[in-house]
Design a protein that fits this description.
With 543 residues, this protein is of the alpha+beta class. It contains 17 helices and 14 strands. Helix content is 38%, strand content 17%. Helix 10 runs antiparallel to helix 11, helix 10 packs parallel to helix 12 and helix 12 packs across helix 14.
């Protein structure tokens, strides 16, 4: 029976119905190396700086602003009664654990105390009813907690790690038989980012300095024991966020162990055919989010490894993970059809992300991104002495570029189209520029043409805007890149951001990929890259 079973497995594998685990011999060692690279979390105690109240204001972002009110010192001595409500402002975004102490003022406690806490990154979270919940993600991501205390006079730490600036305290239950007050409250803030001093030229405009500061804080908050996409929601490692966080980190904190850990975790938890999962969890034990194969993200892993090598010189890690690089290219190449176009229907269609943008056709962007990834992966091969194993990549890149120009480029109009409806989008132009499919002069023309078209599909997130700025720089639009940084990220600063947001559309303050603005992440990893641009290109952004 055993021989028959082995024979059947062999036949299934030969037929392609069963995948061999291509990383079987490496997974455990990669997990060990990921664990060894785990950075230390630095703890900081942060207490509230003021009491505030929410003020409805149609001119404020999402129609609400906070206004300071006196009385923080008195608050710690004020008896709390059912129906009381206070909002504490901690002065900055915090990721960590919340502790509070209720103390008896008069008489002994004769009934449990019941208090509701709501933790908010932005005022909208304190001024929008959570229920009935209309959002497209789990309701439990919203940060509200009801605590019932049969006994007080000792510190209580909420078990859940939180991310916020504001804490709303509502007394739901008390007893007329005794009086109590909140005698202490604080956060134990966490980050693996070390202290860093970012020097800017004296000529740097004030708004760029503000953008730089908020960018640093965004990155710091998302640097935990992995690069998290957002500390309020998801709280996991995504490849797209990893790439952008890691290049921002290389220009600021230089916490390279964190990058190394993330690269190893993603590799160790890949699918059996070698394809990377788009994201992974750390707890309760490291594991991927199954079903999230995102091919544009998979290819960006290769670029992240290249940038890690260039920043650290760590050839040992890059050589160790080289098989992962080769597999991402091989698996993506399987989707190139006889016309040398990326065809998502050639095999089982995979998720292509690129942006939270309704209706975006991703065919042309993927064509450009694949060329970009091929070029960067071959550069990595050259640095590692692996040119022989990657010798077919330059020719493949050339074929894909030629096909893109022939079949997707409107020569007369000077821009790329995507999909059967010939959609015109920013993303199509961006990735053809970054892939070197067109010259800088052609790229500049394409961008200017499309950006002047009111019906062109434009980016919906800082993630996509990052690549727009990169494309502008690559095709010589330096002044435009400078202004875009000010207009887009500076727009968030002017609307009250102390960390940058997951989604931002200057035309729609309530934009949400999940149909409910309070569930948005208002501290999000992929929005942190202004620090990368400001430091990487001082001649553009520090003047």
């Amino acid at each position: 029976m055993k021989k028959i079973a082995l024979l059947l497995v062999g036949l299934l594998c030969a037929s392609g119905l069963v995948w061999a685990d291509v990383y079987q011999t490496q997974r455990q060692e990669w997990l060990k190396k990921a664990e060894a690279a785990t950075p230390q979390l630095h703890e900081t105690i942060i207490r509230p700086v003021s009491l505030v109240k929410s003020v409805a204001d149609p001119n404020a972002y999402q129609d609400w602003r906070m206004e300071n009110i006196p009385g923080l010192d008195a608050f710690y001595k004020t008896p709390l009664k059912r129906g009381d409500s206070y909002i504490l402002d901690f002065g900055k975004h915090i990721t960590g654990y919340y502790t509070f102490t209720l103390s008896t003022l008069e008489r002994a406690q004769d009934a449990p105390v019941r208090i509701k806490f709501t933790f908010a990154e932005m005022p909208v979270e304190l001024n929008t009813p959570f229920d009935p919940y209309p959002g497209g993600l789990g309701r439990a991501w919203l940060q509200d907690e009801i605590i019932t205390l049969p006994y007080i006079d000792k510190p209580v730490t909420i078990e859940r790690r939180l991310a916020c600036r504001y804490v709303k305290i509502e007394v739901l239950g008390d007893s007329p038989g005794f009086q109590f007050a909140m005698s202490d409250t604080y956060f134990t803030a966490l980050s693996s980012a070390p202290e860093v001093q970012i020097e800017l030229a004296e000529t740097t405009p004030a708004i760029i300095r503000d953008i730089n500061r908020v960018s640093i804080e965004t990155l710091r908050e998302c640097m935990q024991t992995v690069y998290e996409d957002g500390p309020k929601r998801d709280q996991r490692l995504w490849i797209g966020d990893l790439y952008l966080e890691s290049i921002a980190n290389a220009q600021s904190f230089k916490q390279f162990d964190l990058t190394k850990r993330c690269l190893y975790l993603l590799a160790a938890l890949a699918a059996e055919d070698g394809q990377l999962h788009a994201n992974v969890f750390e707890k309760p034990t490291p594991h991927p989010q199954y079903g999230t194969i995102c091919q544009d993200y998979s290819l960006l892993y290769n670029v992240a490894l290249l940038e890690y090598l260039k920043s650290t010189g760590d050839k040992e890690t890059a050589l160790d993970l080289w098989p992962v690089v080769m597999n991402q290219i091989k698996l993506a190449a399987d989707y190139i059809d006889e016309t040398h176009l990326y065809n998502p229907q050639k095999k089982t269609p995979l998720w292509l992300f690129f942006d939270w943008c309704a209706g975006l056709n991703t065919y042309a962007p993927m064509q450009g991104l694949f060329v970009f990834a091929l070029n960067k992966s071959y550069e990595l091969a050259q640095l590692l002495g692996k040119e022989d194993e990657a010798k077919e990549w330059p020719a493949l890149a050339k074929q894909i570029k030629k096909a893109a120009r022939k079949q997707l480029y409107d020569q007369k109009k000077g821009y790329f189209v995507s999909g059967p409806d010939k959609q015109v989008s920013y993303m199509s132009q961006i990735w053809m520029i970054l892939g070197g499919v067109i010259s800088p002069a052609e790229g500049q023309k394409a961008l200017k043409q499309v950006m002047a078209m009111p019906d062109a599909v434009y980016p919906g997130t800082p993630y996509a805007y990052h690549y727009l700025v990169e494309a502008m720089i690559q095709c010589g639009m330096k002044a435009e890149a400078h202004q875009l940084l000010i207009d887009y990220w500076g727009g968030m600063v002017k609307k009250g951001a102390d960390t940058f947001w997951e989604a931002y559309d200057p035309k729609d303050d309530f934009l949400s990929p999940y149909n409910f603005a309070p569930i948005n992440s208002y501290c999000h990893a992929w929005s942190c890259t202004p620090i990368y641009f400001i430091q990487r290109y001082p001649e553009i952004f520090q003047k």
